[in-house]
Specification:
Elements: E1 7-10, H1 20-25, E2 33-38, H2 50-59, E3 64-69, H3 73-82, E4 87-91, H4 98-107, E5 111-116, E6 134-138, H5 153-167, E7 172-176, H6 184-190, E8 194-197, H7 199-202, H8 207-223
Parallel strand pairs: 1-8, 2-3, 3-4, 4-5, 5-6, 6-7, 7-8
Helix pairs in contact: 6-8
Bound molecules: ribulose-5-phosphate and fe (ii) ion.
Ribulose-5-phosphate binds at residues 11, 13-14, 34, 36, 67, 69, 140, 142-147, 176-179, 196-200.
Length: 226
């Protein structure tokens, strides 16, 4: 059997925005660019919008994973689809019509993904799971880069795996927040396939080495899954 490798999505929230092109070049060995959109309402912070996404898409061939931390994502999702988002993640806690939103994202040719905050139980996802390509399990409360991984997240990943198998679905599972080489192996052993890493990649002296080291640890975790 071919060994599945963990996929790495550096969050450019931790990049130097004054040199964004060079920062994107420095993560060329990754699988996705993780693009955090914050509206100052759903989360207490502001980041970037569709204009910068358009520029990122012009600069890189890497698929862009757009994480919408915004209230009422149905109102703004079209901007990000038009700007070329490859994956769009909306928060379960922020939307009203999850099925309609996931369907709209897929109709635009992007992958649909739903995120849950640390305080939201996995069971909340049962009705939307058949309609999404990925689930993002937040491993910090969203809003800032550089926070510490919340212990207990691995248990939640196990619950998600059980729920998916009881429903007969197999979305990709992404984790976001406080991920690095110290926990990549255990989150992947617990069910994660895609690792978002902001400070662990952009804060490293050599981003290429950091990406490879986190990927190797995650891939060991996938190989060791029960
Ligand atoms: O969604 C996010 C924050 O809400 C970011 O993607 C996340 O925090 C990544 O940063 P780090 O790896 O430094 O925790
Ligand atoms: Fe994120």
């Amino acid at each position: 059997m071919t060994q599945r490798a963990a996929r790495i999505a550096p969050s450019i929230l931790s990049a130097d925005f004054t040199r964004l092109g060079e920062e994107l070049d420095s993560i060329a060995g990754a699988d996705y660019v993780h693009y955090d959109v914050m509206d100052g309402h759903f989360v207490p912070n502001l980041s970037f919008g569709p204009g910068i996404l358009r520029q990122v898409k012009c600069h890189t061939q890497m698929p862009v994973d757009v994480h919408l931390m915004v209230e009422d994502p149905e109102q703004s999702v079209g901007w990000y689809l038009e700007a070329g988002a490859d994956i769009v993640t909306f928060h379960y806690e922020a939307q009203r019509h999850a099925h309609r939103l996931a369907t709209l994202i897929r109709e635009h040719g992007a992958l649909a993904s739903v995120a849950i905050n640390p305080g939201t139980p996995v069971a909340a996802l049962s009705s939307i799971l058949p309609y999404v390509d990925m689930v993002l399990v937040m491993t910090v409360d969203p809003g800032y880069g550089g926070q510490s991984f919340i212990e207990g997240s691995c248990e939640k990943l196990g619950e998600l795996r059980s729920l998916c198998s009881s429903l007969g679905v197999s979305p990709l599972v992404e984790v976001d927040g406080g991920i690095g080489v110290a926990n990549a192996e255990r989150v992947c052993a617990a069910g994660a396939d895609v690792l978002v890493a902001g400070s662990a990649v952009f804060g490293a002296p050599d981003r290429g080495v950091a990406i490879e080291t986190i990927r190797e640890a995650g891939t060991r975790g996938i190989a060791g899954r029960a």
